[in-house]
Amino acid sequence: MWIFLCNVIDNNQLVIYNKSKIITGGDYLKVNTQKSEDGNIITIIENNCFFTMMFSGNLDLYWIFESQSENKDKILYITKENYFVYSLFEELYNNISNCNLYNIDPSEMAVVHSLEELKKLKKLKSQLNSSLRHDSRYKELFQNDKIIWISDDRDYEFIDRVEITKEEDQIKLHFLREKMRTKDQSFGTGNGPITIRFRNHGSAYTPFNGLFMNVYNKFDSYNPYDKQIHIEEYLYKVKQKKS
User: Which of 34, 76, 131, 238 is a Cys-bridge partner for 41, taking CB atoms 3.0 to 4.6 Å apart?
Assistant: First the structure.
């Protein structure tokens, strides 16, 4: 089966990705990984919806959503059916909702020589995270228990955004497109894949952009041939059978 996803990235250049060799997944959610010169192209497929994460040659991260069905709401649900994938997006949601960006890394631990120094370092990280809650970028990004990321491409005709919410046993990704308001026009919709850009430099949401890059990078440890089922996957399937 050959499925194609087209998208405009930069300079109106049409990029076509071949979606073949679906290598893993449960009954509904599947994951396709593909190598490119710029890094892995990761596509999550669920009910004829295609959600692609890719690192572009301009050194920015892109999320691309396309539906091959009558999914007019453009919604993708990531459930505990695939707990590895679910856990990455749950971690993203929790880190943003809790303003948990600054943590102690191994290089910092290497220069800690006492319990007192460790306490001071932990306090510093806590203060940095707490200060973010009062930042206007955080208030724009996280509203009413919802992550709202408007694409860092804001100079085009259409504004694409993704809204992320955490529900029972699932993460909901809602992709939306709005036409920019002009003097005599109201909002409208455009056709084609929805593209969300996460600038690594100059993002409107810095430093939160790094958390989205972390999700992409952690897919490197994904083993599609690991047949061992996670306890959360088992409990989720049991729950689904009972409902």
Answer: 34
The residues with which 203 forms a beta bridge, in sequence order, are none
CA-wise closest residue to 63 among 189, 198, 159: 198
Tokens of 168: 């029972």
Distance (Å, whole) CA 35 – CA 44:
15
pTM: 0.82
Contact 13, 24 (CB under 8 A): no
The answer to whether 25 and 225 are in contact (CB under 8 A) is no
* Calpha distance 196→5 (Å, rounded): 15
In order, the DSSP letters of 51-66 are EEEEE-TTS-EEEEEE
Q: Centre a 10 Å sphere on the Cβ of residue 205 and count the other Cβ atoms it contains.
A: 22
Q: How many domains does the chain have?
A: 1
Q: State the residue range of the domain holding 121.
A: 3-242
Which uninterrupted H or E stretch holds 25?
strand 24-25
Helices (H), 133-197: 136-141
